[in-house]
Specification:
6-stranded parallel beta sheet; 13 helices; 39% helix; binds zinc ion
C-alpha cells in the first residue's frame, strides 16, 4: 500500500496493484496509517520545508510576433497529488517562480494528515492550476474495470470535482493518455475510447493527456531520466515535430517523485535548464491551444 502513495502512477503493473491492500477497501482511519506513511515521514517533511504564503510567479506576457520568434511552450503537469513529494515540489516552484499544473486525486486530499495539509497549501498556492485526476484513481488502479462503465467514470470525476470545488472541468484520466479538446480526440487504448468520449460529451470535461512522461522507478519513485536526458527528449520532440500541437509540449510527472530532497534536485535542475533556454517558456495548461475555447463550449457545472 505504501507503494500506492509513493510510487503509484497512471501506468501501474498488475503485480504492483495486487500489493495495494488498504486503499478504500478498509475504513478511512486505516488509510491514515497505512496508505500514506504519514507518521514520522510527515513530521519530518513538515519540519524541513517552508511553504510561503505568497510568491510572485513569472508568467511572461505573450511575445509580439514582429519582435522575435514565438517561444516553444512547455507545460509541466504533476499527477496524483496531494502526495509525498508535493511539499518539495511546491518549494521548487516557489523558488524558481514557474507555473505548473496539478492533476489531483480526490481521495488523496483527505487520506492522511499530511495530505490534508498539502491540500490546504495547494488551494492558496500562487501560480499553479488545480484540476481533476478522478476521485478514486480507478479504485486501486483497476483501470480495465474502471473504464467499462461510462456513467461510473463520470460519477467518479464529478465526485472529485465537487469535493475539491474545482472551477474548471479540466481533467486527466488515470492510467490513460487521453485527449479531448474540441477537435482533438486521442486515446492511447482504443477499447476505452467510447467511455472516454462520454467523459467529454456527457460529463462535460476537457481532457488533457501528455506528450512526454518523466518516468520513475516504481520501487523507489525515483526519476528514471536524468534532467539532461529529459531535456534531450524535449528537444527531439520539438525538432521532429512529434508533439500533439506544434511548439507545445506537455510533460507528465508525479508528485511522489520528489519525496526526498535528493530526488527533488532532479526536478530543480530540469526547471533551471528550461529557464536557461531562451527558446522555451513554461506555461499553464489553460494556455494550451484550444483549451479556453473548449471550456467555453463545454456544459457548465
Ligand atoms: Zn495518476
Amino acid at each position: 500500500m505504501k507503494q500506492f502513495m509513493e510510487g503509484a502512477t497512471c501506468r501501474e503493473l498488475p503485480a504492483l496493484m495486487r500489493k495495494w491492500r488498504c486503499f478504500l477497501g478498509f475504513p478511512a482511519f486505516l488509510l491514515l496509517f497505512s496508505c500514506s506513511d504519514s507518521g514520522s515521514r510527515g513530521k519530518k517533511l513538515g519540519a524541513e520545508l517552508d511553504i510561503p504564503d505568497s510568491v510572485e510567479i513569472n508568467l511572461k506576457a505573450p511575445q509580439k510576433e514582429s519582435e522575435q520568434p514565438r517561444k516553444k511552450r512547455i507545460f509541466m503537469t504533476f499527477d496524483d497529488g496531494p502526495n509525498l513529494g508535493t511539499r518539495n515540489l511546491l518549494t521548487i516552484l516557489k523558488e524558481e517562480k514557474v507555473p505548473a499544473t496539478m492533476f489531483l486525486i480526490g481521495l488523496h486530499t483527505k487520506a492522511s494528515p499530511e495530505q490534508k495539509l498539502m491540500w490546504e497549501q495547494l488551494q492558496t498556492f500562487p501560480g499553479i492550476e488545480l484540476f481533476n485526476h478522478s476521485y478514486s484513481h480507478a479504485w486501486r488502479n483497476r483501470f480495465t474495470g474502471f473504464y467499462k462503465n461510462a456513467d461510473s467514470v463520470i460519477s467518479d470525476f464529478n465526485r472529485a470535482q465537487a469535493m475539491m470545488m474545482l472551477k474548471e472541468p479540466i481533467a486527466r484520466t488515470p492510467g490513460r493518455n487521453a485527449w479531448r479538446i474540441d477537435s482533438i480526440a486521442r486515446t492511447d487504448l482504443v477499447k476505452n475510447r467510447t467511455v472516454i468520449d462520454s467523459l467529454q460529451k456527457k460529463g462535460g470535461y476537457v481532457l488533457i493527456g501528455w506528450d512526454l512522461e518523466w518516468q520513475f522507478n516504481h520501487k523507489n519513485a525515483q526519476a528514471i531520466q536524468t534532467p539532461d536526458q529529459l531535456m534531450a527528449q524535449v528537444d527531439h520532440l520539438f525538432a521532429a515535430n512529434k508533439t500533439l500541437k506544434p511548439d507545445n509540449l506537455v510533460i507528465l510527472a508525479h508528485d511522489q517523485m520528489w519525496r526526498t530532497s535528493t530526488d527533488s534536485l532532479r526536478l530543480h535542475e530540469f526547471i533551471r535548464k528550461l529557464k536557461s533556454r531562451p527558446g522555451y517558456e513554461l506555461a499553464l495548461i489553460t494556455d494550451y491551444p484550444g483549451v479556453k475555447e473548449a471550456l467555453a463550449n463545454q456544459k457548465r457545472f
